[in-house]
Amino acid sequence: MTDNDPRSTPFTPEDPPRPIEDRIAEIHKHLEDQRLEGLPSLIEQFSDQETATAVEALPLPERQRFWELVPETRKGEVLSKMGDQVRATLLSTLEVGELVAATADMHTPDIAEVIDEASEEQRDAILESLAPERRALVEDTLSYPEDSAGRLMERQLVAVRADVSLDVIKRYLHQRGILPRRTTALMVVDRQGTFLGKLPLELLLTKDPEMTVSELMDAEAVSINVLTPLSEVAQLFQRRDLVALPVVDDNHKLLGRIVLDDAIELIRTEAEGPMMHMAGLESDEDLLAPVVISAKRRLFWLGMNLITAFLAAAVIGIFEATLDKLVALAVLMPIVASMGGIAGSQTLTLAIRGMALGQITDANKRWLLTKEIAISVINGLVWAVVVGIVAWLWFDNAGISLILGVAMVINLLVAAVFGLAIPLILDRVGLDPALSGSVVLTTVTDVVGFMSFLGLATLFLL
What we know:
single chain; mainly alpha; CBS-domain; Tetracycline Repressor, domain 2; 3-stranded mixed beta sheet; 6% strand; globular
């Protein structure tokens, strides 16, 4: 091999792409300095998802100017990648014609999602712009509950019958010329459209062409009902390592499929949801939304927290006479409530996560409760000794130190029990544990913490 032989040229890897944060910062700088001429070339380097991320990372005035520079041919895909709140804010600024053009090439579930957030005028214009057959599909998608598999499924798929040969399938696919995205298997149905299983493409390509689909298909392939909650859809993709999931109706007739691209976004949303809900925020909260809009969204749960704070204050008021005689109690009592709140939030977070992943069942609830109680006893005794010693050195009062330690153990035990029980009870009555669980738990640990510490002090020190 000579030096001139191209095969002897050493491979030089391309420079790795810069982090998305650096590129977004560059966009922000261009917009800030009014240097818009350089932005189109930067946008070309972004994928649709990265472009959507850039839109979400810009304040509203810059967001609108940046959006105007996104190529018309890409706006539909970029819109479909945005969080709901960011997309809704952006839709309110778009002209009807611009929105209609952006949705022209969108997938049916994405059009339905945009219509949900659009104004009535925009909604009517989008539907009127669609061909009759496609409009019927969009309206059918909108007929399903917003949190169901029917809203996420795509109608583009290839379905074959079980009694035909592989050779016939190959000739059909050759004539068709193209496969829907993320197609790794063909759906198998009977003459009535009932879902029977899947035929993996690798078997279609490698097995004897004279064999029939029924001989090779996976008759145990998992499918889901069109009304299945999206949280269960996310769990299935995680547990089964799926690329596409068939969606069927109550009679097991094949309606569509959910593909991995959409499932990944769904899994991310499901993972972020509990964390955001525990803070009283929505899972798709727009970080850079206008001040008034963000303030309104947070107002309710701050008010709920204020009510619970007054309840805790009322408990303290019951022991006003005790506090007047022993000022040290006022100094130390926040420790009991704080430790209970932290311990309870740990259990609550694990419980909500376990429920979201389907890990908590009737069979293991008792074991889990026993485990959390044991953990709280160990932690309670360890930290009761520590705070007891600190309180004794601080106030030189062994009685207060002992009562502080006992109250802490009591509150940690209560925190463990309620940290597990609250999400289970809220879920049973149809409320979102992540949204309201932390408020209820904080109330319980504050009230029990103050009651146990001040109550024991009243009984044994006065």
